[in-house]
Each structure stands twice: as structure tokens, then as C-alpha cells.
Amino acid sequence: MIKNLFFKQKNKAMLLMDPIDSFKKYLTENFSISETTWALIHPLLKEKRINKNTFIVEENQTYSKELFLVSGIVRLFYLDSDGNEINIAFYRGIEILPPYFTRNLNGKHSCHIEALSDVVLVEFEAESFSKLIRSNAEVQHFATQAVEKELRYKVEREKLYLSQNAQTRLADFRSRYKGLENEIPHYHIASYLGISPVSLSRLRKDS
């Protein structure tokens, strides 16, 4: 409870800032980005606002941007062969969305990204950022950490999905996304867990 309250208070404080300044604060506090390096990053950045229930990116679309979530909730999902939506991750500001190259196959986006609330983003061209990665050690460190975080998540989720029961998967969801259960429709959670909404309802009653 205390940790969740701290998370909300920290996000609220950053929301009062300009989105670009929020990104700067995130980089400075978490990756010790210097003013010199920030001066190289800043010109690449653009604020973007997305309405609730709007796609940020669609599957098979060409979208060559890196994305930083300043506020709001988004989901990543794809459609299976029967057209069912399969949620694979949720993100809440303040957070880096999966790096460009992990989201793309053959130059096309591999999944949908949808805003589940009104969303504020900072976006920047992946190609320009890649050039900075190759020439600046601080940016390289930040990018490496972002990629490692995403890869760890994918491995953890795959292991959980393949080896644990639905009750354990729900417990992991609650731990990973504290409070999100009360902020989004439950059918999205059921899809993430790989169960039906009815089964989720039963699990929630038993837990």
C-alpha cells in the first residue's frame, strides 16, 4: 500500500511538469544523463497526446519512433489466428515503452499499442537515437538498460505463462501492476492471463 501510494505521488509530481522536462528528470535521476548529453537528446523529442481507446501504433504499420510514456495507461496486444486479442503487456507512466527494434519485424510493427486512458507521450526518431547510441556512452547505457529490461520481462512472462497456473499468474499480475486491476476493464486482464473473463471472475472471488 505504501509503495503504491509513493508511486502515485511521484507520478503526480512529474505530471505537473512539461512532458519533455519529465523525460529529462527520468533520465537524470535513473541514468545520470549529463546536461551535455541532454543537449543532444532534446532536439529529437516531440510531445504527443493520445485520446483514450485510440491506437498509438497498429500491427504491420511502419512506425519508426521510440516512445516514452509520461502519463496514462497503454496495452500491447496482437491478434491470434482467430482474431482474438492477446494482451502481452501493460505500461503506466512514467515508463519507457519497448524499444523500437524489439517491437518490429521486417520493418513492420509486430503488435498493436492502444491507449487505455488519455495518454501523454514523448516520441523521437529511432534512427536518430541509434546514431546517438553509437556515439555517446551515456545514451548507450540508457538504451542497453531499456533493452535488458524488456528482454527480462519477455523471459519472465513466457516462463510464467508456460509453467504456472492461472492463480499464480493473477498473483504475478497484481504484484507487477499494482492497482491496475481497479483501473482497466477486467477482460483485458483475462486476456493477459490467458483465461476467460468468467474464469477471472471466479479467481478474484477465491483470492
List segments where confidence is low: pLDDT < 50 over at least 5 consecutive residues: 1-7
Largest sheet, strands/sense/barrel:
4 strands, antiparallel
Rg result: 18 Å
Through-space gap between termini: 17 Å
* Strand order within the widest beta sheet: 1-10-3-6
Q: How much helicity do the residues have?
A: 40-55%
Looking at the structure, what is the overall shape? elongated
Count of individual beta strands? 10
Mean pLDDT: 90
Q: DSSP helix count?
A: 9
Structural class: alpha+beta
Instruction: Please write the string of helix (H) and strand (E) elements.
Output: HHHEEEEEEHEEEEHHHHH
**Strand percentage:** 15-25%
Record the SSE blueprint.
Layout: H1 2-15, H2 19-31, H3 35-41, E1 46-50, E2 55-57, E3 65-71, E4 73-79, E5 85-92, E6 95-96, H4 100-103, E7 104-105, E8 108-109, E9 112-115, E10 119-125, H5 126-135, H6 137-163, H7 166-176, H8 186-193, H9 197-206
Antiparallel strand pairs: 1-10, 2-9, 3-6, 3-10, 4-5, 4-9, 7-8
Helix pairs in contact: 5-6, 8-9
